[in-house]
């Protein structure tokens, strides 16, 4: 996290007018910029002068550049600043924030309704923001060892904009029941998505999937292409068919090894990215998920024909990827390709590492590909 500070001075009699102007310009632009975490305006009025100190918090320097451009060390001014300011800093100062704690740094969690629908092999839990009006709802599919809470930031973002968001929990994950008999193929998991669609009576919707959940979403979209208005993928699984057969079969065999639980945990810690809080959360979620659910889906993933599944859905697609997922067997490199964006500095769970970046990309996709 970074802090950005700027100082300016007005006449004392202009203090309130300039504060109003800041709310209309800089402070609003700060908060609307993806990656801005907070904005504070400090003011001191004495000796006929009003000194303003603006302090903003940001996820990264890339987030700062979204606001300030390619020269973030330069202060950003608006047309009427000259009318008020009698003294100003033309350069800003950036600081690392090694510690920040307290109520001011914690976003209150919005609680949404959760309930169950009947799935192919048991009850499925889901979280639903409700509402939505005439806009298309968005249905979220988590990755392995995930749950609906992984999409909390996206659900809150959509709800604030009047769009309905729904996050389901696949069989054996979160509050959904274990399947009997046990079946974790991607095709069967796509049946969970279809069951939620039927249970909620969704006629047309946008589908969002993460990791293996992106493969599940792709299968579901291919089975009902007219219902799925768009497919937004967050660091999706890669095409295992492009690996040498010996390497692929060795991976499948390793899933039956006595130490598979330890190996999976090491993989999760490595993929989690730079944020310790995200890593701890993901490992806790992994511990809460039956190992056979994770291994079963991984076995299916290794045999899954991603290119063929991609060809079965002709609708709008977009892939948001971490730097490690930009290679020849990445989904967006297959066949005719898929529009994509790389989120620098992100781990595999981009929606937890950089939720604002995911929200901004999702907004752009919804506007560009599915305007209603």
TrEMBL record:
It comes from the Bacteria. Pfam families: Abhydrolase_6. The keyword DNA repair does not apply. GO terms for molecular function: hydrolase activity. Keywords: Hydrolase. Residues 138-361 form the AB hydrolase-1 domain. Gene3D superfamilies: alpha/beta hydrolase (3.40.50.1820). This is Alpha/beta hydrolase. It comes from Corallococcus sicarius. The lineage of its organism: Bacteria, Pseudomonadati, Myxococcota, Myxococcia, Myxococcales.
């Amino acid at each position: 996290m970074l802090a950005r500070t700027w100082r300016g001075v007005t006449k004392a009699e202009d203090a309130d007018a300039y504060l109003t102007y800041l709310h209309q310009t800089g402070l609003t632009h700060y908060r609307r910029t993806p990656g801005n975490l907070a904005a504070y305006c400090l003011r001191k009025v004495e000796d006929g002068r009003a000194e303003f100190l603006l302090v903003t918090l940001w996820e990264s320097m890339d987030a700062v550049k979204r606001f300030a451009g390619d020269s973030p060390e330069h202060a950003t001014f608006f047309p009427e600043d000259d009318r008020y300011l009698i003294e100003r800093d033309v350069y800003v100062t950036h600081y690392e924030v090694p510690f920040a704690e307290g109520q001011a740094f914690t976003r209150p969690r919005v609680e949404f309704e959760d309930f169950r629908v009947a799935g192919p092999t048991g009850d499925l839990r889901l979280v639903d923001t409700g509402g939505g009006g005439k806009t298309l709802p968005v249905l979220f599919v988590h990755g392995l060892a995930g749950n609906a809470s992984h999409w909390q930031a996206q659900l809150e973002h959509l709800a604030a904009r009047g769009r309905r968001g729904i996050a389901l929990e696949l069989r054996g994950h979160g509050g959904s029941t274990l399947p009997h008999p046990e079946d974790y193929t991607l095709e069967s998991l796509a049946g969970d998505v279809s069951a939620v669609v039927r249970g909620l009576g969704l006629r047309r919707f946008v589908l969002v999937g993460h990791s293996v959940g992106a493969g599940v979403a792709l299968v579901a979209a291919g089975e009902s292409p007219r219902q799925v208005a768009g497919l937004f993928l967050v660091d999706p699984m890669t095409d295992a068919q492009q690996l040498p057969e010996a390497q692929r079969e060795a991976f499948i065999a390793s899933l039956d090894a006595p130490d598979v639980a330890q190996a999976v945990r090491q993989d999760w810690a490595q993929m989690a990215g730079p944020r310790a809080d995200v890593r701890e959360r993901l490992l806790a979620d992994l511990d809460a998920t039956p190992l056979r659910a994770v291994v079963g889906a991984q076995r299916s993933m290794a045999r899954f024909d991603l290119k063929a599944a991609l060809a079965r859905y002709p609708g709008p697609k977009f892939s948001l990827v971490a730097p490690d997922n930009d290679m020849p067997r990445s989904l967006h490199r297959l066949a005719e390709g898929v529009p994509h964006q790389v989120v620098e500095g992100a781990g595999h769970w981009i929606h937890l590492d950089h939720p604002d970046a995911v929200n901004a990309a999702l907004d752009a996709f919804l506007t560009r590909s599915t305007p209603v």
